[in-house]
Amino acid sequence: MPQSAAAAFDARRSDPVELIEKAMLVYVPGYPVAGTPIAVLTAGMKTELGMSQIDDETPAPGLDIPTVEKRAAPLRRDVVDALRKAIIEGRLAPGSRLIERELIEMTGVSRTVIREALRQLESESIIETIPNKGPIVRKLTRVEAEDLYAIRSVLEGLAARMFVANASSEDVAALKDALDRTIDAYRDSPPEIIMKVKNEFYDILFAGAGSETLSSMIAMLYARIWRWRALGLGHPKRSLHRSSQSVAELRKLYDALKNRDADLAEKIARREVMNAAAEIMQILAQENADTL
Q: What range does the domain containing 53 cover?
């Protein structure tokens, strides 16, 4: 990885207060997604948030967003969650246009709700509005990736520390089951399955931390970096040692959490995120070299 990127990561790690201040910019106060687990944001479109199923017989062209049930819960929240999930899962690729008419047809809600949902996603920096083109899915820059991974390392380290303080024995047992599934997935599963089971592991970790505010901050952060996580898991130029490194770090993290060692758990959680960031940077460096 380029020395400048490594130095930037080291500098960020040395100033957690600054990182937390930046992390607060990722979290939007008052937005009702507190406690939303990453698995909800990455599960199948037909199972989240009590929404009605997709009509497989009459799919609308272009987008794949479920009809939103008109019920007491805020419609905007359901639409935001559905759109965010489509972006996370890659069904709305970077640069994709978000056309109001199509979104209204797919979700069955009013233009006002769609516009409110799009404004919410824009406030989270997941989409952006281009003059004479309208809202599109944002492309994440390398500088943003470095920044977001540094913030992610602080938040996940904090989650590990809070898990030690707040998690029950049942949470620890559930984490072990998720760890075993993750290790199995790394042996012979495709990248999308590995990401799914890793998300389940981290969902349990974040839930056991017992902080709804932290969970929602992490959920919105994951929505912004899903493309980089997918790149790190499935790119053909991925380092040969990265899978074994990640499994080893997850094992160490679980042991530290089980033994209620908050300092060690936080250290390992943060280190694994920075390992992932280093992997992304080396992949991008190779791609740039190939184009010269």
A: 31-137
